[in-house]
Description:
- The protein has helices at about 10-25, 45-50, 90-95, 170, 185-195, 215-220, 240-245, 270-280, 290-300; strands spanning about 60, 80-85, 110, 120, 140-145, 145-150, 160-170, 185, 205-210, 235, 250, 280-285, 305, 320, 325.
- By secondary structure, it is α/β, with parallel strands linked by helices.
- The protein has two domains: about 10-75 and about 115-325, Putative cyclase (Glucose Oxidase, domain 1, 3-Layer(bba) Sandwich), CATH 3.50.30; about 80-110, no CATH class.
- A hairpin with a 3-residue loop joins strand 5 (about 140-145) and strand 6.
- It is globular.
- The model is unreliable at about 1-10 (pLDDT under 50).
- It holds the Pfam family Cyclase.
- GO terms for molecular function: arylformamidase activity.
- InterPro entries: KFase/CYL (IPR007325), KFase_sf (IPR037175).
Amino acid sequence: MGIRQVNEPEEDTAQTVHAAAERYRNWGRWGPDDQRGTLNFITPDKVLEAASLVRRGDVVSLALPFDATGPQTGELGRVNPLHTMTFTGTDAAAGVQDFLPHGFGAADDTITMPLQCGTQWDGLSHIFDRGRMWNGYPATDVTGLDGARRNGIEQVADGFVSRGVLLDLARHCGLSSLDPGFAITERLLLECIDAQGESARIGRGDIVLVRTGFLGARRRDGWGDYAGGDAPGLSFDTADWLYRTEIAAIATDTWGVEVRPNELADSFQPLHQVMVPNMGLFVGEIFALDDLAARCAGDGVYDFLFVAPPLPVTGAVGSPANPQAIR
Length: 327
């Protein structure tokens, strides 16, 4: 169920992707200078609505630990975080911190990592469509010197606070994890929403989390090619649903959100090419959703206050996050 492979000539794939990009394009919707995209759907009233969903004071982190045991293999230059200590407690105990007076000791550290190696948001400057990024800005606005001069992740440092909704596709299908190549269609999303009930209804400005179970399975059984390999994910046919629901963001527990292998012949992440630069839709990846899913299944409530601001790294095209579902 939900598996669909589209085999078509390369020129037909280009036509399909470009037609969807133009059909679902939001350029100019919030003015010619906008750099927030679909986060504009989150209004003050939406934040107040989301805050009212806190019923138990139950806080669930949705982040994978940022350490050397992560899923990265070096694909696309992404490696796992390298954590290094600069001062340590053993230094203090050995008396080698004599630059600090009166017995004062300290520990300090650094981290080196790609900004998209773990639980993270894609920024609106991350993906281009035919030389343009979100709102029609040229791809050349992302440079080696400055990073993203437009659509940098710092533009949405106050974003990602809204009503969150978990769609537990793995549980809905009666599986611990969907298989690689399993395409989650619009029809399947709607069936899951109906099965989960009223708290899973999707509204404007919501942030939707889709659980495939794939991250949990790979954490348990070994990462393998989780980062960059075949995976379950959204079908290309969900573009219309993503557009018309006017959600603020979509995130999954997979490396690339959309199904891999990609359905369209001779393509690479075609749904990204529609979502990010054209819709202005924010995409989250490598979200750890199993704990949240168990709690939602336990009480039958699938919506919550969701808080997941990015690090405001000036000019960055993506950012790590520690998303919180507060129930």
